[in-house]
Amino acid sequence: MNEFEQNVQSKRNDAIDAGMGFVVSFGFFALIFIIAGVVQFVAR
Predict the structure, then answer these.
(1) Could you report the per-residue pLDDT of 1-44, keeping only the tens digit for each?
(2) What's the alpha-carbon Rg for the chain, to the nearest Å?
(3) What is the model's pLDDT at position 42?
């Protein structure tokens, strides 16, 4: 057996961490898109 399988730092589900990473990155790019839309609207 692998020695790292015996001493696990975190037993959380990886899908939760991957989902949170997706949500945070999606929110960041959505925020940039919204800011760009507001700047384009104000510049008219």
Answers:
(1) 677 778 778 788 889 999 999 999 999 999 999 999 999 999 99
(2) 20
(3) 97
- Residue 2 is given by DSSP the state -
Which tokens go with 40? Answer: 């384009």
Residue with tokens 């790019």, as numbered in its chain: 29
Domains of the chain, residue spans = 1-41
Q: Where does 1-44 have alpha helices with state H?
A: 3-6, 14-43
According to the model, what pLDDT value does residue 11 have?
A: 81
